[in-house]
């Protein structure tokens, strides 16, 4: 089979409804990337935290092995590999994060392809994007992370705490100076109890 020969596996919004769980273990998922679901890849998720993945190789995609759309992130448990894809990284499409989400890919890099907006204007706790220690996050030239919004109560949090041994790295995909839009903390990002932390990170 050729890369891009099928649409891949798509976990849609609601696939994790009321505790439903999907697992992928000891799988080889290859040759995806046909634009069937509004995004290309071997594994595509939309507004879901499914599936749980372990001991699995995602290989030979005609684009990315994994693509995240909306408020999404699979659970990469252990021994997940990306090999021989056009881009061996997790693609993150532009999205609005109105709830907490954790980016923890256990060493697999991220390619952020649009602006990630982390904010909510409700009276609830602010949404938080947590990026675990050791993650490498690369951005397209029009991509970045926007925390909060200029407006009443529109708060949000970025929690990126690395360690000396495993710092968090934010940089451009291209490697060029001015190659991405950066991290932007807007007016009211710290409204109420909102608090962002950057520690042991390289930006």
| Average pLDDT rating | 92
Secondary-structure-derived class: mainly beta
Shape descriptor: globular
**Helix percentage range:** under 10%
Which parts are unreliable, with pLDDT below 50 for 5 consecutive residues or more? none
Q: What fraction of residues sit in β-strands?
A: 35-45%
Radius of gyration: 17 Å
The count of strands amounts to 20
Number of helices: 0
- C-alpha end-to-end distance: 40 Å
The major pleated sheet works out as: 8 strands, parallel
Q: If strands are numbered along the chain, what order do they take across the biggest sheet? A: 1-4-6-8-11-14-17-20
SSE sequence, one letter per element: EEEEEEEEEEEEEEEEEEEE
Commentary on this structure:
By secondary structure, the chain is mainly beta. The chain has strands at residues 9-11, 23-25, 28-30, 43-46, 52-59, 66-69, 75-83, 90-92, 95-97, 101-103, 110-112, 115-118, 128-131, 136-139, 144-147, 157-161, 168-172, 183-185, 197-199, 201-202.
